[in-house]
Each structure stands twice: as structure tokens, then as C-alpha cells.
Amino acid sequence: MRFYYNLSYILIIQRVKELEKGLRDEISVIGAAGTLGSCATFNIAVHKLADEIIMIDPWESMLKAHWMDIATAASEQNVVVRRGTYLDMTGSDIVVITSGAPSGIISSRSELLSSNLPIIKQNAENIKKYCPEAIVITETNPVDPLNYAVYLTNGKKDRRKYIGYSLNDSIRFRMWVAEARVFSQTVSGVPLLANMAITR
Predict the structure, then answer these.
(1) Residue 146 is inside which H or E element, if any?
(2) Considering all CA atoms of the chain, what is the largest pairwise distance in Å, rounded to the nearest integer?
(3) Strand order in the sheet with 80-84
(4) Which stretches of the chain are DSSP H helices?
(5) N or C: more exposed end of the chain, with fewer CB within 10 A?
(6) Is the whole-model pTM more than 0.85?
(7) Beta bridge mates, 81
């Protein structure tokens, strides 16, 4: 399911590239050794949304394993996939943040705030240092407060460059409606407008 969920933010990246002319086509993924980050990298690569993708994660052994598989898959797309450190994301046009602490069993996504906030702040400081002009897509839960934390860290405070990815709830709702009504998910264009405060 992770691969399917990630497809929706592909549309976000495509739209960003339409609006922002002159991008260098380099995307960095922070947290790329995790399930969400590796799937994000894979989808960016196979949809050829960048000429170069930088995979960043302190979990080096898992990062290497995902990098080898994704780089192989992306070779047919003429996309360069590299693994590196924060320094390697210098000049990136877009940064996707997927890093976070292990969630365990939780009743609300808000419970993840205290453990994920220090990680996200470290990510944000390095984005400010190495690619302050980048457009940032935050995928780590709880998305809204963590995306705001990233925004506050950058001194320029350009709200247009900070995107909180929170389409999964809409996608899951569409899936469940389609299942209940027995029709294709692709034709069930049902947006979810309510704020999912209980589960975020």
C-alpha cells in the first residue's frame, strides 16, 4: 500500500515543477532508509521527476540496501540515484522529509510529536544550511505541526515553499468508499475535507 499512497504526492511534485521554472531537477529524500522514504525515492525515480535523487539516512546498512535496488530500477529511466549525507543535498530543488522515530502502538498521531520534533528540527537546520531555497515536502507525522516547525526554522519564511503532505487520509477514505460501493478507486473522486485531529 505504501507505493500506492506515495503516488499522490507525485502529483504535488509535478505541479511544483510546473510552477517553479528553472529547477535543477535534484531531489533529496531525508529518511530514505525507512519504508516511507524508500518508497518515496522509488516513485520519484520511476516517474522520472528528477535527473538526480539523493538518499539520506543515518541507518547506513539499510540505506545501502535500498539504494542498490532503487538505483538499479532507475537505471532504465536515466535517473541518477545516490546515497549521501546532508552535505550532498547542497543545491537541491526539492527536499522530501520522511524521517521519524519508530511509532510503535499509538492511539493518535499527535503522540509522535515529542519524539519526531527533535529529528525534524535537525533536518530543517540542515536544509537551511545546505539548500535554503529548496521547496520542502514534509511527510512525517503529525504532518501539520512538524511542517510548521520546518517553516519556522528557515529565516526567509516563504510559506509557498513548505508543503505538508497529508493526502493519505483522503486516499484511504476514497479506497474505503470504493470498497463499500463496489466501484473502482480511480473513479471515486471523494475528497476528505475534515481535519482528522483524532488520528493526527
Answers:
(1) helix 143-153
(2) 50
(3) 80-84, 52-56, 26-30, 94-97, 135-138, 162-164
(4) 2-19, 35-46, 60-74, 113-130, 143-153, 168-181
(5) N
(6) no
(7) 53
CB within 8 Å of 3: residues ≥ 6 apart: 39, 42, 43
Other C-beta atoms within 10 Å of 150: how many? Answer: 25
3-state secondary structure of 188: coil
Q: Where in the chain is the domain with CATH 3.40.50.720?
A: 2-166
Task: Copy the grid coordinates of residue 161.
Answer: 515553499
Does residue 128 sit in helix, strand or coil?
A: helix
Mean pLDDT by 10 residues, the chain (200 residues): 46 65 78 93 89 95 96 89 96 94 80 92 96 92 92 82 77 74 56 46
